[in-house]
């Protein structure tokens, strides 16, 4: 099983990059690997709307 351990939205030349880290657990709940990373560019309307919501909420706290 994979479990999300970190998430960030990073502006890049290509668009809003979603970066994440995760750990993999075995059936007993023991960590098999940790600190695994992945990323992608947000392109769907749903992803872009979610990013806008998070950015607006963060800006409101400034």
What can you see in these coordinates?
By secondary structure, this protein is of the alpha+beta class. It has one domain (2-60). Helices cover 26% and strands 53% of the residues. It is built from 1 helix and 3 strands, in the order βββα. A 3-stranded antiparallel β-sheet has the order 1-2-3, with no helix packed on it. Strand 1 (2-12) and strand 2 (15-25) form a beta hairpin. The radius of gyration is 15 Å and the shape is elongated. The N and C termini lie far apart (37 Å). The mean pLDDT is 97.
List the SSEs and their pairings.
Layout: E1 2-12, E2 15-25, E3 31-41, H1 45-60
Antiparallel strand pairs: 1-2, 2-3
Largest sheet: 3 strands, antiparallel
Mean pLDDT: 97
N/C terminus separation: 37 Å
Main structural class: alpha+beta
Strand content: over 45%
How many domains would you count in the coordinates? 1
Number of helical regions: 1
**Oligomeric state of the chains in view:** single chain
Q: Give the % helix.
A: 25-40%
Q: Cα-atom Rg, whole angstroms?
A: 15 Å
What overall form do the CA principal axes indicate?
Answer: elongated
Q: Strand order of the main beta sheet, please?
A: 1-2-3
**Uncertain spans, ≥5 residues at pLDDT below 50?**
none
Number of strands: 3
N-to-C series of helices and strands: EEEH
């Amino acid at each position: 099983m994979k479990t999300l351990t970190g998430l960030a939205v990073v502006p890049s030349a290509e668009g809003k990059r979603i970066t994440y880290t995760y750990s993999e657990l075995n059936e007993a709940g023991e960590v098999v690997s940790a600190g695994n990373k992945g990323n992608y560019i947000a392109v769907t309307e749903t992803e872009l709307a979610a990013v806008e919501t998070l950015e607006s909420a963060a800006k409101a706290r400034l």
